[in-house]
Every structure is written in C-alpha cells, then in structure tokens.
Amino acid sequence: MRILTLLVLMVLGCSRAMAADGAAFNAIGYSPDSRYFAFEQYGVQDGSGFPYWDVFVIDLKTNEWVKGSPYRALLESETSKPAAARDQARAAAARALKDLAITEPAELIAANPATEAVPERERLVFDRWYESLGARSGEKSQLGVRFELSVEKLPLPRPAKCPEGDGDSYGVRVSLKDLQTSTSRVIFEDKAIPDSRNCPLAYDIAAVVAQSGLPMTDRLVALIGVYARGFEGLNHRFIAVPFTISD
Fold first, then answer.
1. N or C: which end of the chain has fewer CB within 10 A?
2. Residue 19: which of 43, 3, 37 has the closest Cα?
3. CA-to-CA distance for 188 and 124, rounded, in angstroms?
C-alpha cells in the first residue's frame, strides 16, 4: 500500500509539473527596411486547457508594439484546436502585416527552446554568419563574428497587479559580448516591470533571428523567455529585444 501511495503521489506530482503552460513561438518576418518585425506565440492555457494564439508586431526603431498589437485569440473550449486560434489571431493581424509590408522571412540564427536540456539557459552563443565548416563550441569563429547573449534578472518594484505576499518579481538586463574582442555592452535593461509580463520570476534566451536575403541588415531580434506565475506553475512566454551587433 505504501508503494502504491508513493506511485500515485509521483504521478500526481508529474501531472502538476507538466500542467504549467510553455508557449511555442514562430518568427513571422520583417518589413523590407527591417524596421518592423512580427512574431507569434501560442499554446494551451494552464488550468483552463483553452488554446491561445498571440501575434506581436513591433517597431524595432522605437522598440514598441505598433498600434493595435498584440493581436490575441483565446478559444474558451477545451475541445477547440490551436489552429482555430491561429486563424483568428492571424486574421486580426493581417491588415497591420500588409500595411507595414512584413513580407521578408526571418532567419533563425540560434535557438534554445525551453524543452531543450542545457547546462545554462541564461546564455546563448551564436555566429552572425554561416561558417563553412560549421560552428563548433569552444572554437574561434573563422569569420570573427561570434557573439554571446546573456540575461540577468533585476530586482525592481512589483507591478501593481501582482498580489501582496506572492513573492518578488524581476525585470531583465540583456547583454551582448563580442567573443573576438571580449567586449560587452548592455542592449536592453528594464527600468520598471510591465504589467503585461504577469509577475515574472526568471528569464532565459529562446532564440536569435535576423532578416534573410539581400540587402543584408544588422537589425537582429533576441526572443527572451519570461517565466511568470500561472495557475498551475510557472508559465513561459516571450518578449522581443531588438539589437545590432555593432555599437
């Protein structure tokens, strides 16, 4: 009986651990001048089991959402499919994507999904350009274009919407290091925690993307993972941080 009880508790514990909501993402693309960028995040809500889909359209020059963004769809039925939420959100965003000419594909430079087991989620090393012999960890870049992104959480005042006694919330600082020159600079730092992050506790680096094709541009985007309190654990969402590899 004791063994059976332990097995039941283990199964229940695993179920609770898996019940939290880890969103997936997709980079939609850029405008031809690289000023505007769009991406989407999607998944199934913890607790409710409702599928959701969010489309974000960002002005990379001002680092702000464009008017009307984000475009969100939440289907309040456990039997609804994520594809139906996708269709609603993309339909809502279609006019903005067309008006801003977000037609250019985004190239995935590096990725570190939350489901990948890695020693450290707060750092990501990438090459800006393709290396003909392949990128190898611990070696120098043949083209001198290897960089490291890192995130660290910052203690900041808790957003007003976060309940008293619910623990601390944190902002984020994002830094870029040139591994050829060993020089680093901060590319983004919170001064306050936006309410839209829902009481964040931690951050990681999910991906780096750049515009594909010619003419080549130097306006990249880091997708930063945000771990925030949810109904059944820590949920994982994304924010976009634009940056360039030169000062």
1. N
2. 43
3. 16
